[in-house]
Amino acid sequence: MFRAHSILRANHLYPLPTLRRNAATTLSAGFLRPLQLSKALARSTHTLTATTMLSRLADLPALTARVHTDHVNMGGYPQAEVALLNYIRNTHRSNIVYMGFRSKHLPHKLYSQWVLGATPERLRQTYDDYLPRLEPLPKSNVNITRDSLMNHLGQRETYGAYLRFFDHEISERGMESVFQTYYPLLLAGMYGGLTHPMIHIGYAIEFHNDQLLSEGLAYACSHYLDMAAVIDQPTVATTAMQEPPQPQTATDPWLSLHQVAEDASGDFQVNAAEPRFSRRAAGLLGRPAVMQKLSRLVQNYLPLAPADQSTDADRSSPVTPDVLHRLAVSTVGAYAGLVTKRPARLDFFLAHAVTSLYATFMIVPHLTDPRDQVRQLRLQLFILLAVYATEGRGALPKEPHVPGDAHLRRRQGNHRAIGNDATNLPFSPSDTESDSNDGNGDGTMRAYPDSWHDIRERAVAADDDHVAKVVRALDFFRRVYGDTNDELFHHAALHTVDQIQVKDDWRFQALPQE
Known about the structure:
Blueprint: H1 16-28, H2 34-41, H3 50-56, H4 60-68, H5 79-90, E1 97-98, E2 102-103, H6 106-116, H7 120-130, H8 159-173, H9 175-186, H10 196-207, H11 210-222, H12 228-231, H13 253-261, H14 277-285, H15 288-301, H16 312-315, H17 321-335, H18 348-363, H19 370-390, H20 452-461, H21 467-499
Helix pairs in contact: 1-2, 5-6, 5-7, 6-7, 6-20, 6-21, 8-9, 8-11, 9-11, 10-11, 10-18, 13-19, 14-19, 15-19, 17-18, 17-21, 18-19, 18-21, 20-21
Region (Disordered): 415-449
Pfam families: Questin_oxidase (PF14027)
InterPro entries: Questin_oxidase-like
């Protein structure tokens, strides 16, 4: 599966010809060093569709590994990798949160900026600016062992104790064994910490970083929020459904969002005056009627047969490219301002639905039990629905699409003009080629000011901790599904870099309730 390697041994860039020659062999072996492969493949690889992926690859792990080669390190600054890894190593013994509840985003931000093309100087600036925020590990007398692992879940002061435990486990057993042993046990609690434990683990898998895996698992334990009653329940027949849905089928997440949006019972009303998301969420999810409705939607999304009644068909994975596609489109549609009556400012918490979904794309191929793949995607849908409801809901269009003529939009006064006719050139959102195609071959840029190249540069320059990783997730989704949804992902990414430069640019309040 993935090869564990110490953060100290992570500088493993291979010559381009070797990578091109051995790409197929490497991919068939599993999820092996996708970023290094991507550097070699990116310049000749265009957007890969779900249909093409399915026709080329039969199993999900290989499929996602192949997709990931399209998510490239655009910058080409290999010398920055060693410094980046040292920055992450230097913060390993700090607390995973600061100021009581704010998550340590530094590894996410550094890796995202690097993939998007940050210079070594930009990475150093990010590290220097972030370091003063971090706090020491919380003191705890608890000693975590394999036998006592589940005894202290949700106790935030035990993060350091869990970190010591997982550091030791990984040093003794390796990343793959530790992930396979503990992630399924903790999966139901990954909504705790607003999905940040799952995001952390996604980065650990993507970049083969053992320290991030240890941090992510310790984060999951110390901030555990049990949603087993939602994601682990088998799908049962209802009065409107004589038999449970077949395991190969899935309900469209956009329809599930519509059901939450159009619920007129009053159950989903939130206190929009409450400034803290955690309190709004606790008030909403503390209502039995709300949890019952969300549970029903989640359990009918991807059916799960009782473990003792599973058949061979149930053991085959229902997590298909189409299932992942619709979840990506629905999540980005909810985030990207397609919700009508929503203020123009992007919602901070819906951004986490996007970045946690990207983590799910990294994690699912490494869940060897198809039931765990279903549990992971059920949790991801729950995250989307719960955050959407907590933020006040909003009227949804029939389908998640770019509104009006947004795909023809050009920012006035920001054209990199080429010749006198540049302002008459149409904006092209389908800028899906590698960076070499963003230029004219003479060091100048095209006339398209809103190209993906420009978006990536602006994401790297943003001071906010979330912009780079949101844009990176959207860039990944458009490389997978850009043939049918390029405008949606481009709209979302452009909206993000247009609006968000610093933390206060996000919207943190719920929509006013009518």
